[in-house]
Amino acid sequence: MQTSIASLDLPPFRPRFPWWGGDLQTVANRLRRAATVLLPHGGERLRFPLADGTGDTLLAILHRPATPKPEAPLVLLIHGLTGSEDSQYMLSQARLLLDRGHRVLRLNLRGAGPSRAVCGGHYYAGRSQDFRALLALLPADLTRDGLVAVGYSLGGAMLLKYLGEEGASSPLVAAATVCAPIDLSVTCGHMMRRRNGIYHRYIIEQMKREATGEGASLSGAERAAILGSGSIWDYDEVFIAPRHGFVGAEDYYERCKPVRFMAGIRVPTLVLAAGDDPWIPAALYHRYDWAGNKALVPLLPESGGHVGFHGAGSDQPWSDGVIARFFDHG
After folding, report:
1. How many structural domains compose the chain?
2. Which residue segment(s) compose the domain that 200 sits in?
3. 250 and 263 share one domain
4. What is the DSSP code (8-state) at residue 311?
5. Residues 55, 203: Cα–Cα separation, whole Å
6. Which of 237, 272, 275, 285 has CA atoms 20 to 30 A from the CA of 67?
7. Number of neighbours of residue 291 by Cβ within 10 angstroms
């Protein structure tokens, strides 16, 4: 599938009242919290035991459309930091894709959401090996018509890293990312700015709660380090880095940042980000050499916030329709 933005004939993004500006676009999912019902599309819980000696198991929900579209690929949805299968953006995208006849798998990363209870370990931005393991465990009857994936925020960063590592060997036929932090160090510093203080306090408290939840395998020192973290950088410095073999937070950021791997991507990949995202600086996207890799399809509207894109004319986020059209185009 070779796709360009022009060939998709996309409507421009225009914010919907009252979600004007990057901050309101960002918080709209939590302020609205509109229930997204996936019926009549049936769902079933799937378990994916990881063969890495940890005993951890990833949990996901598979939905089959009430009216299947012939030869439609399975869509894997991957949430962001402190998200889960029930994040509003996951439900919203799932509903649209199911209505269009796709089967959809909503994944919980290692130690996230329902996976927390059956995982001693925890996800981080560089843990692309979990994607590799999951894809190897998918039943053949689910992937016989192809496989595509969507990664949101941190999940998008993991997906880009995986795609770059795999190159042409990836079983995915297409992918999309939404507001992925393609440079982890720059994004962390940006998030810790004073103007993002409310966001930062909220996120770090969610991270602590998630990492220390029931099922987590932690030493007393690790638990104390997590709970004592005053920032995302601290959390990565005292927990994620030593737990996973990095010298420190900056070593982790440098070795796992997606921009180190994106040149190796050979799967057609839509990369969507907003110019007014308060969490991820738009400059990271605008200075990247997109022309250097024809597999990457950047879409960088001026507004949309962080995983927002609540546009005029529809309650469905604009990004959902863009991604569905990208996948259907091939």
Report:
1. 2
2. 191-256
3. no
4. B
5. 28
6. 272
7. 8
H or E element at residue 249: helix 249-256
Q: Which residues contact 177 (CB under 8 A, 6 or more apart)?
A: 150, 151, 152, 156, 157, 159, 160, 269, 270, 271, 272
Picking from 256, 284, 309, the residue at the C-terminal end of a domain is 256
DSSP3 helix / strand / coil % (the chain, rounded to 5): 45, 15, 45
**CA angle 176–179–180, rounded 5-degree value:** 75
- Other Cβ atoms less than 10 A from the Cβ of 18: the count is 10
Planar angle of CA 146, 297, 180, nearest 5 degrees: 90
Within 8 A by CB and 6+ apart from 248, the residues are 237, 241
Structure tokens at 227: 């709970």
Q: 308, 278 in Cβ contact below 8 A?
A: no
Can you give the pTM of this predicted structure?
0.96
CA-CA-CA-CA torsion for 22, 26, 32, 33, nearest 10 degrees? 170
Residue with tokens 């939905």: 63
The rounded distance, in Å, linking the Cα atoms of 273 and 124 is 21
For residue 143, give the amino acid letter.
T
Per residue in 166-216, pLDDT (tens digit) is 999 999 999 999 999 999 999 999 999 999 999 999 999 999 999 999 999
- Please write the tens of the pLDDT for every residue from 206-264: 999 999 999 999 999 999 999 999 999 999 999 999 999 999 999 999 999 999 999 99
One domain for residues 241 and 291: no
